Input
Amino acid sequence: MILNPIGIMVDSLKLGLRDGLRKAKDMGADGVQIYAVSGEMDPSNLTPQARKELKAYIESLGLHISALCGDLGGHGFQDREANAAKVEKSKRILDLAVELGTNVVTTHIGVVPQEKSDGVYQTMLEACEELGVYASKLGAYFAVETGPETSAHLKSFLDNLSTKGVSVNFDPANMVMVTGDDPVQGVYTLRDYIVHTHVKDGIRLREVDPREVYGALGYKPMSHEAIAEEAAAGSSYRELALGEGGVDFDRYFAALQDIGYKGYLTIEREVGDQPEADIAKAIAFIQKYK
Output
C-alpha cells in the first residue's frame, strides 16, 4: 500500500493556471506541479505581491506545490555560452519555488555524454555544480528528469557533484520509451537522489539515440512540442495510459516504498485530446494501490 501524496501537472489539464488549480483540487489531488518558465509564471513577471497572492490562493484550495518545472529547453546546459543566462534564470525559478512553498524545481539538463573527458560533460558538470550549491544553501533541489541516459550513467554524473542540490525527478516512462532502461532497477540505483516523481506510462517502438529526442549540441535543440508529438504518434516511442505501457507499476511502486520515498507521485500527461479524463483515470489507477 502506498501513502504518497498525488500531484497533477497543472499544465497537462490545458485550462490555464487558476482554472487548472481549481480543477486539480476538484479531481482530488493533494498537490500540483506548475511550469514556471514563461508567461504569467515566469519569475520576472511575478511581483512580490503577486507571489504572496498566488501562494495564498493555492493554500486556500487546500493544495500544496509538489514542484515547479524550470525546464528551459534548448540544449540544456551543454552550451557554455548560453549557460550564464540559463543558470541565472534557473536560480530565479528556485527562488520563486521556495517563496511559493516548495523546495523542488524539475528540469532537463541535456543528454550527459558518455565520457568525462568530453568538453560538454565538463560544461554540464560546472553548471550543475553551481546550481547544486545554490540550491543546497536554500535547502532545495534542482531535480533532473530521468530519460536521456540510463540511471547508472546519471548516477555516475551526479556523484561528481559536491552536494545533492542537483538530484532526480524520476520519470519511469521516459526510461522505458527512450533508453529502454528498467525503471525498477533505476529506483534502486538512484535511491539517494530521488526527490520527486512523475507517474506516466509508455512503450518503446524502436531503438533511438536520446540526442534525437532530447536534443544536444550538433543536434536539434529540445522542444517540448516535438517530444509530445512523438509521444502521441511517433515512430520511436508512444506515451500510453497508466497500466497500458511498459512500466511495471506493481514493482515500481513497491521499489519506491522499499527505498523509503515519501514524496509526490505527480501525474503528467503530455498527449491526448482528453487530458482531464486521462488524468482522472490515472488518479483512479494510483488509488488502487492506496
